[in-house]
Amino acid sequence: MALSGPDRKLRRMPRKRTGRGCGSGGAMAAAAAVSEAWPELDLAERERRRELLLTGPGLEERVRAAGGRLPPRLFTLPLLHYLEVSGCGSLREPGPGLAQGLPQLHSLVLRRNALGPGLSPELGPLPALRVLDLSGNALEALPPGQGLGPAEPPGLPQLQSLNLSGNRLRELPADLARCAAPADPQPHRQPPDAFPAALFLPGALPLLSELAAADNCLRELSPDIAHLASLKTLDLSNNQLSEIPAELADCPKLKDINFRGNRLRDKRLEKMVSGCQTRSILEYLRAGGRGRCRGKAEGPDKEEGRRKRRERKKRESGEGADAVVDEASRLLLRVLHVSENPSLLTVRASPEVRDVRPFFVGAVVRGMDLQPGNALKRFLSCQTKLHEDLCEKRTVATIATHDLGAVRGPLLYAARPPQDFKIIPLGRREVKAKDLVRQLQLEAEEHRKQKKRQNVSGLHRYLHLLDGKEHYPCLVDADGDVISFPPITNSEKTKIKKTTSDLFLEVTSAASLQICKDIMDALILKMAEINKYTLENREESSLSDPESDAVCGHGLDPKATPGAEVTGSTPLVVEQVRVVDEEGHLKVVYPSKMDLDFAAAHVTVLR
């Protein structure tokens, strides 16, 4: 791309010495300062890149110097398809020129900044934009002129994914649907704390596949959401919803929903959204459920009478108070304490990790059944999703899972120079960490050239997390083998297989210990859900396949686990793992009494 005005002169003209403090010399000095402050822009322009990521500790100061905006020169890179600016507390507005300068932009990620209370100027029109992520900012409203783009003509006609989670929004702009696609030209009034009615008009957003508005103040979800024919993912967690419309089950492509953190009137549904699979929740809604149902709503007295009759029948049949929770959705976890476990796994943390990736949490989980069908695939997909969401693409934390049978303890969590340790990465041969990073960098560059864009996948997406690090973190077993290299990969030596039933889990972070614990809680809960789902489907298939039990093997004996007979299901056993310092002093043990403290009643933790 050709450089404009002062930048072109800067490259072609020799540097002149002048005593003047203004004029052309001052302009050239300013241009040189901007170029020096933003080397990423020079590189993107020189290599004609189509993807640009701006993040890291130095970004905040540079954006503050630019007046809380992105540098105008960024908007002179018209080849960009992907732009991400994240984790910058001084970025308050994108700045003018974005729409005019980046007409080919497909994905715009501006998460975890300080955008707000509105967007001035508005983002659009961006005719090619498909993914827009404004999560984790300080947006309060998106009125016309300070929102996503013009309504006439549509400013975001190709939009497929919109993420507004973690803002302060109490309502969305009424012209959002018209901004994203042609719709009814008449304005539609909508009460506060809800999506605008125009958003869900038939044909308003025919391409929208993902809608995320978590951590806001939404109180109502319209039944007309069923008109989003392409919707696949819906995240409305941590809002103020009291009802979920049954019509949600009519979305033909919906695969993943998240309503956790809402105080629903239907208490059974509230428990289900905290732990059940999306399919089970949609089936419950489709059948009518309780609370808000299809058709004419029944009075509260009639519904209360039905509830009391159901509870009375349960008591008369000998079931206790716990039977109010649907047994089919009950998840069991048993915690095995240090005192009960003679073969306790211990991790020793060396002092060098303090300056690299200081926080480590480990756990052992026994009783997983990964053999039937796609159980292993579901488990690996669950880990990937946690990396994308809770771990924020591994920038906050990283998960690694190991076949416990291949782990030789005690373990050492250390930080070493990249040329001083080797690992056998998943699917690769043994290599030094330094050479592995270099190899991945070359692969990423080759991928960009072949695809003629900068989007990369797999391990290549996380290489920037090691930039500037003189030591890399690693987990070493008793044989001296490196079994984990966070945040990049773990070892082929401890790879999870279909036959794996006992796992060692680790979560590492440079941010905080609590983040590690929260993510470990979420991982173990997901494992319990997957195991429950696998068990139920295996039992169904065994009715027609008597050999399936012989193929799949068996878990723990329910008689040996107190409480297992409550629901007839086999619990996962979670064994504590201790992390100690070099002198053997305890740093952390997981799970402690404060961990695995799930509010959902469908989860039973036996301690």
TrEMBL record:
Coiled-coil stretches are 430-457
Question: Does the UniProt entry include the keyword Repeat?
Answer: yes
Q: Where is this region: Disordered?
A: 1-26, 291-322, 537-567
Transmembrane portions of the chain: none
Under Pfam families, the record lists: LRR_8 (PF13855)
Record-level Gene Ontology MF annotations: phenylalanine-tRNA ligase activity; RNA binding
Q: Which InterPro entries match?
A: B3/B4_tRNA-bd, Leu-rich_rpt, Leu-rich_rpt_typical-subtyp, LRR_dom_sf, Phe-tRNA-ligase_IIc_bsu, Phe-tRNA_synthase-like_B3/B4
One biological process term in Gene Ontology: phenylalanyl-tRNA aminoacylation
Residue intervals of the B3/B4 tRNA-binding domain: 356-532
Stretches with biased composition (Basic and acidic residues): 295-306
Q: Which domain of life is it from?
A: Eukaryota
Q: Where is the composition biased (Basic residues)?
A: 9-19
Listed A to Z, the keywords are:
Coiled coil, Leucine-rich repeat, Repeat
Q: Extract the PROSITE patterns matched here.
A: LRR
Under the heading SMART domains, the entry gives:
B3_4 (SM00873), LRR_BAC (SM00364), LRR_TYP (SM00369)
Q: What is this protein called?
A: Leucine rich repeat containing 47
Tell me the organism: Bos mutus grunniens (Wild yak)
* Gene designation per UniProt: LRRC47
